[in-house]
Amino acid sequence: MALKKVLVGRDGRVRSGWKVAGFLTLSVASVMVAAVLIGMFAPAWALQDGQPWPVVALSALLIVGVCALCLRFEGRSWADEGLSPDWRRLRQFVVGLAGGVALVGGLAWLLMLGGVLYWQPNQAFTASLLVSGTAYFVFAVLVEELAFRGYALRRLTEGIGATRAVALLAAIFGGYHLLSIASSPAVKSGGVELLWTAAGPLVGAIVFGVAALRTGSIALPLGLHLGWNWTQWHFFTFPGDDNPVGLWTPVISAQYAGNPAPFRIGYLVAMALALVAIAAMTRQPRDRHPVTLAAGLP
């Protein structure tokens, strides 16, 4: 009886927090299962170029299945969650994609004008790497948006409100990145580098979360996230990073070597601009706004 009170709210339904915990647990399990299966059965050609796109592709497929299972359990449809494709969602995705590319391109241009860095063509870049790298980022971003800005965000919004839901999932998103890349030599020593490993994605997650709630769909944040990550790969992947260098190899000017401040400030400014643009694009009367409706506010 006591356990039932913990799990079930006064309305007789499972509490939102438990739904989200179950969903995220199944999502993590999906990624682990995908990694094991691909590691056991994938042909060598599928893992070439250092881009494990089959793992994230299978993970995305499994998490779609997890979403379907959770929605069926609650008697909800894909349309209820803003996950059904239509032309409006496609336009939002394209706008987000263009915005992500423009933000990284603009940041690169300003850093170049400021003498912070310049680029050299990556002679080792191949068409095969372009295909495998693009596939990797498409599916990796899809996994993250399905897990953090889809079902989980909407259930938390119903339970604790939009602001707290975005903040909580952003913190979890930052922790997820901390666990996944904190073994990199650049952050092993801890300190500010380790803090930024979580803080950078946390800021991005706030922007993506706001975009998801204000549009009632993951289409806009999916496009923005993909456009940013894919373009960042080409302009800001340094030799020695986890991902192979993209089309251009960045070379930092001597006076800025070992000084990440310009990059971090530029990133924060870009995210702030994205947030302002999202707010302007999605401004609606309060009684029709997806955030208001999702949170059950009058």
What is shown here, in short?
With 298 residues, the chain is mainly α. The protein has eleven helices and two strands; from the N terminus they run ααααβαααααβαα.
Features:
298 residues; single chain; disordered N terminus; mainly alpha; two-stranded antiparallel sheet; 2 strands; disordered C terminus; 11 helices
Determine the oligomeric state from the structure: single chain
Mass-distribution shape: globular
Mean pLDDT: 85
Please mark out the parts with pLDDT under 50 across 5 or more consecutive residues, or reply none. 1-6, 291-298
What is the β-strand count?
2
Question: What does it look like?
Answer:
It is a single chain. The protein has one domain (82-295). The relative contact order is 0.14. It has eleven helices and two strands; from the N terminus they run H-H-H-H-E-H-H-H-H-H-E-H-H. The chain has a two-stranded antiparallel sheet. It has 298 residues and is mainly alpha-helical. The chain is globular.
Question: Topology, please?
Answer:
Layout (H helix, E strand, L loop, with lengths): L1 H6 L8 H26 L11 H22 L12 H27 L3 E5 L5 H23 L1 H10 L1 H20 L9 H25 L3 H18 L11 E5 L8 H21 L8 H6 L3
Antiparallel strand pairs: 1-2
